[in-house]
Amino acid sequence: MSTKIDIISGFLGSGKTTLIKKLLSEMLSSEKVVIIENEFGEIGIDGGILKDSGIQIREINAGCICCTLLGNFDAALKDVLKKYHPDRVIIEPSGVGKLSDITAACQKVIAQSDSEINIQAVIVDPIKYKMYIKNFSEFYSNQIECAKTIILSRTQKIDQAKLSEVVNDIRKCNPSAKIMTTPWEELSAQTILAAAEETGSTPLIQQEEAFESVHHHGHCTEHGHGHCNCEGHHHADDVFENWGMETPHLFSEEQIKNMLKKLSESEKYGTVLRAKGILPVSEKNWVQFDFVPEEFELHPIAPDYTGRLCVIGVNLNRPALAELFGV
């Protein structure tokens, strides 16, 4: 039986790791699963968040799958298939990666191994949709246009009229994809997997040809202007940047909340699109924080070898970020 390769993509902070944890805990515990994590930046965070699942995780931290790491990614996937012979490989690309590039890299490996692309999904946060499609259309549209399944996150937090507007816009970008709009809390992992694995979507090669046609004829530029557009093929490293640190510093939860509020309220730090970290709040208690524009969350997490944090955005003010986090 060939190995299933599941690509679960999505822009920064869309909920990829949350969905993967749900699938692992509810449905995939009986399968031999390997996760290939790609962090945009030098400080890996999500691998630490997923490690308590007992799943083998191979992180690739030096850059972005869609550009500088294509060669390394090929080797990593080949190595995983040869070494672990898994039932399933879950690939979580960088939030600023292009789904077309990661799919192309997988196809190279598939041609030389007993494996197949099973799920080709993108997670979209409808609350942030308009902002991201406007400012980062080249990357955001690529993920939507090249997916076979589009899973909307946090739909319970958006007005139904606005949700319908987002769904209609997504259908214009990708009329053949299956769009899942029911809140995750109301769905079992089995239902999500069954929907994403269901055959009958537009063949991959046709989707790629459609994407190339759209890309060169300016569909994305109808949505977007500002940081990116589709006039040229940009790598994530050309547009986005990251700042990350390891720190032994002990924080209070109130300190962390105040720092994250400042990221939202002040432009002095640059355009911050995503921040995440694992930090100690006492000798035995740690928290994981997740930040996207205008909102953030803190959750308890198991202690790690040291505190880590990472910020992703555009025109980041590194000295100001270092001062904010006291590192």
UniProtKB/TrEMBL annotation:
It catalyses: GTP + H2O = GDP + phosphate + H(+). It comes from the Bacteria. Residues 240-325 form the CobW C-terminal domain. InterPro entries: CobW-likC_sf, CobW-like_C, CobW/HypB/UreG_nucleotide-bd, P-loop_NTPase, Zinc-reg_GTPase_activator. Keywords: Chaperone, Hydrolase, Nucleotide-binding. PANTHER family: COBW DOMAIN-CONTAINING PROTEIN (PTHR13748:SF62), COBW-RELATED (PTHR13748). Belongs to the SIMIBI class G3E GTPase family. ZNG1 subfamily. This is GTP-binding protein.
